[in-house]
Amino acid sequence: MATATLIKQHVIDPEICIRCNTCEETCPIDAVTHDDNNYVVNAEICNYCMDCIAPCPTGAIDNWRVVEQAYTLDEQFSWGELPAQEELGERADGAIEALEDEVSALLEEARRGLGGKPVAPSSASKPTVNLYNRGKPARATVVGNYRLTAPDGETDVRHIILDLGQLPFAVLEGQSIGIVPPGATGAGEPHAIRLYSIASPRDGEKPNANNLALTVKREPGGVCSNFLCDLPKGAGVEVTGPFGATFLMPNDPAAHIVMICTGTGSAPFRGFTERRRRAMPQAAGELLLFFGARRPQELPYFGPLQKVPESLLARHLCFSRIPGEPRTYVQDKIRADAERIARLLRDPHTHVYLCGLKAMESGVDEAFADVCRGAALDWAVLKADMRGGGRYHVETY
Amino acid sequence: MIDLMNVDYTTKIPNNVDLASDRQVLKALEGWHPGYLDWWNDMGPEGFQESLVYLRTAVSVDPKGWAKFDYVRMPEYRWGVLLAPQEEGRKVNFGEHLGEPAWQEVPGEYRAMLRRLIVIQGDTEPASVEQQRHLGKTAPSLYDMRNLFQVNVEEGRHLWAMVYLLQKYFGRDGREEADDLLRRRSGDEDAPRMLGAFNEATPDWLSFFMFTFFTDRDGKMQLESLAQSGFDPLSRTCRFMLTEEAHHMFVGETGVGRTIQRTCEAMLAAGIEDPSETAKIRALGVIDLPTIQKKMNLHFSLSLDLFGSEVSTNAANFYNAGMKGRFQETKIDDDHRLTRDTYAVMKMIDGRLQLVQEPALTALNMRLRDDYVVDCAKGVERWNKIIEKTGVRFRLELPHVAFHRQIGEFKNINATPKGVLVDDATWQNTHDQYLPSTVDGDFIAALMQPVAETGQFASWIAAPKVGIDNKPGDFEYVKIAA
Q: Reduced to 3 states, what is the DSSP secondary structure of residue A217?
């Protein structure tokens, strides 16, 4: 793989750094050092533990360069300003969503439908990524594991709550965590890490508790999903992350958020909605959800969703397999709500998010194009513009 | 098990020192709390107590948890008692008790000494809030306003930190001292703050930036020395305070830097090459570099006075007792007792400034001051780089340590910023060249027009390179009429 030779190097911006020594004091493995000119990070020592990030008063510490060869200490000592990111072509594009190649590749794949470089919403909080990795995972405890789909539903989708105990684990709505399934493959390799979107808001599944929720569908033969779905309360699980630096919720209360999902793709939107409800219930921005499933029995959170007031979350539930009824997909409801969609798309506060199966991408795209045609808008232009401005996001699998 | 990392918000006072099971101290602090809030409402930032400010609050003293940002009304800020995690097996690292286990309780023989150290440090915290209380009204941007308020609430928290130590370890004396910290007022004739620089006015934003750069840097040096203390609760308190103090250094260094940047840019745009054409430069709505130099001269010299007398037996006693160490004590390679060492101290001898060897123990103030000067000089060098980059030919320089002093060896002499001794008459005729004059002050005051539109900045200051918490340029850091 071409990316194998690239290094994500942690660097400090000498123009912003005030040499307060906080990072050097904080670093548990002495990777930060200084001379009379600059504070610098030794690429050979830094293990991305991220302990130094939050305490830095200036933000100078939070800089990364993707490089083929790491900058030496002497090079860094001599800097008057940060060197620009080298042109490495497509191999180094966009925000750093994860520091591990394994996870970066997964996220890159999930963002492919975006058709360009992913950009975070301008009012999103700054995410923390990669606090924990495969070499140093966080140990979480299962404190809840509930079936979300009806007993007679054809799928088993579960709401799993993980408690992080005393471990710092700052997350934002829209971010994912990695799960490290125990054991090894038939070939003796450790299992690949699987990513799951966080389904709870930043302050926890329970407010101000250090926990988070996942929405997990049991896949026939799936190593990780079966492992997770079978976990009893009290069981331990190794997690990595958080990951993702672009598919994030705008903090601006005036932001309108259009959320389109199928199945477990609803996870981040549960987080978005709950964040709005808790932090800014009077927000001026609208929340609009298009949620597709085969039948109500298979729609995760069908019950709890009925209790969310329409004033907080306007929604279209779209069912494709109700006997005797026409098959309805999310794109059908988008077309049916064309007037509202057109109004929202014209509004510079509107953010659109797609999350779920890759199969829904083209249908949704065509529906938006149709709505735009009817409203004298050019979807291709608008979509690119929204993506560039951090207002169009895709995460599909 | 008590949770020493995460902050307990179940009591009225957020803390990580298990106040919930320390009823006596909790009660004492709860008794002090209303007086503190009265003080904050009377003497805290004027006119913005109802505004929503995007502030940083610690939710844990672990590196990952202490920078949580959100909108807060300042009087509702969660001031709390936060100590850095206890280090297992920590020792006294200097002085007579070198190598003994660090004290978890106050050693009886050092009680008075320690109380005095804590009270002096504590007194500076509310003082600067008082000095800066009018500045919100002339903030050059919402970004700067937010930074001012962050500094203010953290100074408030530092007062809490010191008051906790007084209430917890010093009984009734401590409670009385805690009350007195709320009674004294900066610049008050009857009950002034304890140290001179904390009774000076902070009349404008350039003064504020200079204050946070120079005077808060003294605070950083003092806290660093106290963080070395063999009295472990003091050490842990100061270690956590240092992480907050770093933000104040940042506000000062970048504030002055952005002022310089804007001046140089305006000069270039107007085709003015000579920095001494002050009238022309001021007409551009920016602060000329010579005036910035004068402000620097003033704040540097006032801050040097905070280090006390160059030669001091008090300092020696504090060190011997293991109460206050040197800057980065544990990184220094010597015997950490200093009983046989000497240190070069600059003194006035036979009418000349000369370096003389003094016993290292009594010269500790001098040593800390020297470390401070080195630290300041690095920041000034950054400012010079900004000037250099724009192509303007001017260099800022720290004045001589003998310049404009009220305390110590040089209090009775007149020295120019270059360190040349002059007589009284000459000083009277020339000091306006070195220190801000009334005219300079009036000019700066006239520039201080508030700017409250998001993403906009006053004429005299450049926008910052990055936002707080990585926020975009037009972020509304303060919702004034919330």
A: strand
Q: Where are the alpha helices (DSSP H) in A147-301?
A: 223-229, 267-279
Task: Write the DSSP assignment of A83-123 as a string of letters.
Answer: PPPP--GGGS-S----SSHHHHHHHHHHTGGG-S-----TT
3-state secondary structure of A215: strand
Instruction: Summarize the confidence of residues B297-306 as an average pLDDT.
Output: 96
CA B212 from chain center: how many Å?
5
Rounded to two decimals, what is the model's pTM? 0.78
Same domain, A264 and A390: yes
CA dihedral (B238, B240, B246, B248) positive or negative: negative
Give A59-70 pLDDT, tens digit per residue: 899 888 888 899
pLDDT per position as a tens digit, B433-455: 999 999 999 999 999 999 999 99
The partner residue sitting opposite B60, judged by closest CB among A80, A125, A168, is: A168
pLDDT (0 to 100) of residue A149: 92
How close does chain A come to B96, measured CA to CA in Å? 27
Nearest CA in chain B to A169: B64
Q: Which of chain B's residues have a Cβ under 8 Å away from the Cβ of A22?
A: 242-243, 246
Q: Which residues contact A259 (CB under 8 A, 6 or more apart)?
A: A269, A272, A287, A288, A289, A290, A353, A355
Size of interface A-B (CB pairs under 8 A): 74
Q: Are residues A191 and A149 in the same domain?
A: yes
% pLDDT > 70, chain A:
97
**Statement to judge: residues A260 and A231 lie in one domain:** no
Which chain B residue shows the shortest CA-CA distance from A121? B472
Q: Which of B359, B264, B344 is nearest to B313 (CA)?
A: B359
Residue A119 located in a structural domain: no
Q: Which of A281, A274, A310, A291 is nearest to A360 (CA)?
A: A291
- Are residues A380 and A274 located together in one domain of the fold? yes
Contact B64 A54 (CB under 8 A): yes
Task: Copy the structure tokens of residue B262.
Answer: 């804007």
Residue to substitute from A12, A13, A15, interface B, most B β-carbons within 10 A: A15
Across the interface, whether the CB atoms of A170 and B65 are under 8 A apart is answered yes
Decide: A49 and A40 in contact? Cβ < 8 Å.
no
Q: Which residues of B touch A39 (CB under 8 A)?
A: none
Count how many residues are written for chain B: 482
Give residue A68's domain range: 7-113
* b/e code A325-340 from CB counts within 10 Å (16+ = b): eeebbbbbbbeebbee
Which residues from A are below 8 Å from B6, CB to CB? 166
CB contact under 8 Å between A54 and B67, yes or no, is yes
Q: Is A320 annotated as a binding residue?
A: yes
- Res. A2: pLDDT tops 90: no
Residue B436 token pair:
């801000």
Q: Give me the residue from A50, A55, A80 closest to B243, CB to CB.
A: A55
Report the chain A residue with the minimal C-alpha distance to residue B69.
A125
Average pLDDT over residues B445-473: 91
Percentage of residues of chain B with pLDDT beyond 70: 97
Q: Which residues pair with B91 in a beta bridge?
A: B101
* Domain assignment present for A131: no
Q: Which chain A residue has the Cα nearest residue B220?
A: A20
C-alpha distance from B377 to closest chain A C-alpha (Å)? 11
Contacts of A176 (CB under 8 A, 6+ apart): A107, A195, A196, A197, A198, A241, A242, A243, A244
CB-CB contact of B26 with B11 (8 Å): yes
Lowest mean pLDDT among A50-64, B224-238, B309-323: A50-64
A185 C-beta neighbours (distance < 10 Å), count: 11
- Number of structural domains found in chain A: 3
